[in-house]
């Protein structure tokens, strides 16, 4: 038995014939609210979902409680992003002595270098590589691309960087509509394995969601056609949008150290302000899971307003604009297009 439980879904479906539900609804633990909504979109009345990190909460700084340890113990399925995003999950599963099934939904889109974002638009008759199979040689294949990219707009990015605390890989793949398709496919496979009698329902719901994601992807591409590549630059608080950047040719840069759990020096702020002025950046975005006082300070010193707020690692409440995953993507994409089309 591996440390993630009885059955590990890493990249594709493992056979679960030995696992039997003791009740009609699947009891599911989602690591954070975005995944919780994805599961509910496919499972609907057949699932009971608990999201450990709730709406407008930051998964990066979450710390499990004894109550949540007990919740995990009784779950049939635990769904997490993977790719190092939930650094606290290993400890939680071990503390709960979880014996159920675990699903890693981001495996298969795994790296932020771009190749895995070439998601097929047809049916999912393709293989997904495990994160462990993505070797050093794979990264070398991207060296020319990375070198050229660094010699472009990144040349003057003093004080700004794509900063991550997840081992060098950006795990925030859900910001790409096409990568989101993979998330839904893994979730659908898992629910079919646990409730095979509802296979047709789950597959129909998946098709409906995938069609909406494809339409959203196309809308974003069409909207960006009128925006010169040199103008596709935005400032965000948290450096967690690289999949979106690569999917649509946008630069979304963050001040060095301006992560959800980091400190920012006066020099960092000055570097960002200088970059904004030198490059005529049109928009700065706050985020729903971060303390936005610093980004407000940056905007004030740069002489441009904070354009709006992006939903990065959590959904909004029901009255907000991002109460579901699809609403979140739609809202974020509309905000970005409105900023770039000014």
From TrEMBL:
* SUPFAM superfamilies (alphabetical): Helical backbone' metal receptor (SSF53807)
Metal-binding listed as a keyword: yes
Report the domain of life of the source organism. Answer: Bacteria
Species this protein is from: Reinekea blandensis MED297
Keywords associated with the record:
Metal-binding, Signal, Transport
Q: Which PANTHER family match?
A: HIGH-AFFINITY ZINC UPTAKE SYSTEM PROTEIN ZNUA-RELATED, METAL-BINDING PROTEIN HI_0362-RELATED
| GO terms of molecular function | metal ion binding
Bias category Basic and acidic residues: which stretches? 120-139, 145-172
Q: Which family does it belong to?
A: Belongs to the bacterial solute-binding protein 9 family.
Q: Name one GO cellular component term.
A: cell envelope
Q: Which InterPro entries match?
A: AdhesinB, Bact_metal-bind_prot9, Lipoprotein_PsaA-like, ZnuA-like
- Region (Disordered) location: 120-172
Pfam families per the UniProt record, alphabetical: ZnuA
Does the record bear Metal-binding in its keywords? yes
Give the protein's recorded name. Answer: High-affinity zinc transport system substrate-binding protein
One biological process term from GO is:
cell adhesion
Can you say where in the cell this protein is located? Cell envelope
């Amino acid at each position: 038995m591996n440390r993630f439980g009885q059955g590990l879904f890493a990249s594709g479906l493992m056979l679960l014939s030995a696992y039997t539900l003791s009740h009609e609804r699947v009891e599911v633990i989602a690591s954070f609210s975005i995944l919780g909504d994805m599961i509910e979109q496919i499972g609907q009345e057949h699932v009971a979902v608990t999201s450990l990190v709730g709406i407008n909460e930051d998964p990066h700084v979450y710390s499990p409680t004894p109550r949540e340890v007990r919740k995990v113990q009784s779950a049939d399925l635990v769904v997490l992003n993977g790719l190092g995003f939930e650094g606290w999950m290993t400890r939680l599963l071990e503390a709960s002595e979880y014996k159920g099934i675990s699903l890693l939904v981001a495996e298969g889109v795994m790296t932020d270098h771009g190749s895995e974002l070439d998601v097929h638009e047809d049916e999912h008759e393709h293989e997904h590589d495990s994160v462990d199979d993505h070797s050093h040689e794979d990264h070398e294949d991207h060296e020319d691309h990375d070198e050229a990219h660094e010699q472009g707009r990144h040349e003057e990015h003093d004080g700004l960087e794509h900063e991550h605390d997840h081992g060098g890989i950006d795990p925030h793949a859900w910001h790409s509509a096409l990568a989101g398709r993979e998330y839904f496919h893994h979730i659908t496979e898992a629910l079919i394995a646990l409730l095979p009698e509802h296979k047709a329902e789950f597959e129909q719901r998946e098709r409906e969601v995938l069609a909406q994601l494809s339409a959203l992807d196309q809308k974003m591409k069409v909207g960006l056609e009128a925006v010169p590549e040199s103008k596709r630059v935005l400032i965000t608080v948290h450096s967690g949008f690289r999949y979106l950047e690569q999917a649509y040719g946008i630069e979304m840069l963050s001040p060095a150290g301006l992560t959800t759990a980091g400190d920012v020096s006066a020099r960092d702020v000055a570097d960002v302000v200088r970059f904004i002025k030198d490059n005529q950046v049109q928009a700065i975005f706050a985020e729903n899971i971060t303390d936005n006082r610093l980004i407000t300070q940056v905007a004030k010193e740069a002489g441009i307003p904070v354009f709006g707020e992006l939903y990065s690692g959590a959904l909004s409440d029901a009255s907000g604009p991002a109460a579901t995953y699809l609403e979140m993507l739609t809202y974020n994409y509309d905000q970005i297009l409105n900023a770039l089309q000014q």
